[in-house]
Amino acid sequence: MESHPEISFGQYIVPNFVSNSVSIKISDTEYVVISPGEPLLSTFLIDRHSKDTKIHIIMPNAFHFMGVSAWQMRFSNTTLYASKKAKALLIEKGVAKNENDILSLEDKQPPLPENYSILFPPGHRGGDVWLKKQDTHHSSVWITCDSFLNYERLSNQPVARIMQKILNAAPGLKISQVIKWFIFKDKKEFKLWVLDQLELDNPTTLIPSHGEIAKGEDLPNKLQLLVRQRL
Length: 231
Description:
By secondary structure, the protein is of the alpha/beta class. The chain contains 7 helices and 13 strands. The chain is globular.
């Protein structure tokens, strides 16, 4: 990203829907990767990325793990992170064999560049975590998970297109019916938290797990309106 050169953003399809991976550069040999997609390995693996490159993989909830094993196979020097709630579910799903294979972000966090922090939005069944980069001015970058979607248009895939229409998941900034029905455990708790956090952080860039990056000085107002209308 031009205004945030340490951030790289990639997209892949799984299944039928656009999903996103985010990489944050710590150094030429160390990266934090959020929701690593297997199809993005070929684009990430440019010459300077050797097998010894250190990769800190953040699974932002208990559902974003499909590409993790492929990245572990390619990079032997990897560390996995998730929230405590997500960690327990990921172990149940066999993503890790035991508790020592995944670090709890509440206890141990990867090295991050200056002005980065990890947020724990409440009210999610899958133990969501977000990342925030606070700019020097009163604005920030939010790297979120499934709470928000931002598809520019309806999918060209017939099945995905029908599902997006039924679930009100596109086009534009959305909180889909899937999120409301299955992802949120306590919508009210999340709503109160996120409205407060919008006031504190004033996010002018949103990188969701699905869809396109959203930017603009009016983004906080758009998100606030969306949350108030949908939750």
